[in-house]
Amino acid sequence: MPDQFSLFDAPPVTDRLFFAIFPDPATAASIARQADALRAAHQLSGRPLAPERFHVTLHHLGDHAGVRRDIVAMAGEAAEAMTTSPFEVVFDRAASFHNGGNNPYVLQGGEGLDALKTFQRDLGLAMARAGLGKLVDRSFTPHVTMLYDRRLVAEQALLPIRWTVGGFTLVHSLLGRTEHVPLARWALR
Fold it and tell me: pLDDT by residue (tens digit) across 101-130?
């Protein structure tokens, strides 16, 4: 009986929702090459993520038991309110985030991410107006996770990886299955 759920147990969390930007395929391939080179240079054992999974998370909209259609609707309302022109991002550093043994090794940047920070803030304001204020990520460290590893690697400068952000996506992540399903995309205009 311990493996069965009672009527009072919360159902298991299986789904994550988040807003993200994705690099174009050529840039994703460039990130994959950089991840491979850095992995070899630092003798890391973690496998790089698949190029189609490279992204920057803008706002995490929660982990849920199933897809919350109310949150999807409010997220769509917020996204539709955005009137930002395309902008460039530049990632010129790599470093590990400490995460207790499953450490993300990520691309980061400096001034080349100012427009991204502004966009993330403005999307958060639109989310708040749409009723998602409690889900707005107020602290934002833009990064692209390349791989996870037990080892920590200190920050180092890289040749810049840049792309023009032309849109953003509402993503449904199936937890534990490394699968991202785009629910909706919005072009910047």
Answer: 889 999 999 999 999 999 999 999 999 999
How far is 58 from 139, CA to CA, in rounded Å?
10
Q: What amino acid occupies position 101?
A: G
Domain residue spans of the chain: 22-183
Q: Which CATH class is domain 22-183?
A: alpha beta
The residue type found at 44 is L
Each residue's pLDDT tens digit, 13-40: 989 999 999 999 999 999 999 999 999 9
Dist CA 119 CA 85 (whole Å): 10
Which residue carries 């690099």 as its tokens? 23
Task: Pick the closest to residue 35 from 56, 20, 57, 50 (CA basis).
Answer: 50
Q: How far is CA 53 from CA 17, 29, 31, in A?
A: 15, 11, 11
Question: How far apart, in whole angstroms, are the C-alpha atoms of residue 117 and residue 140?
Answer: 7
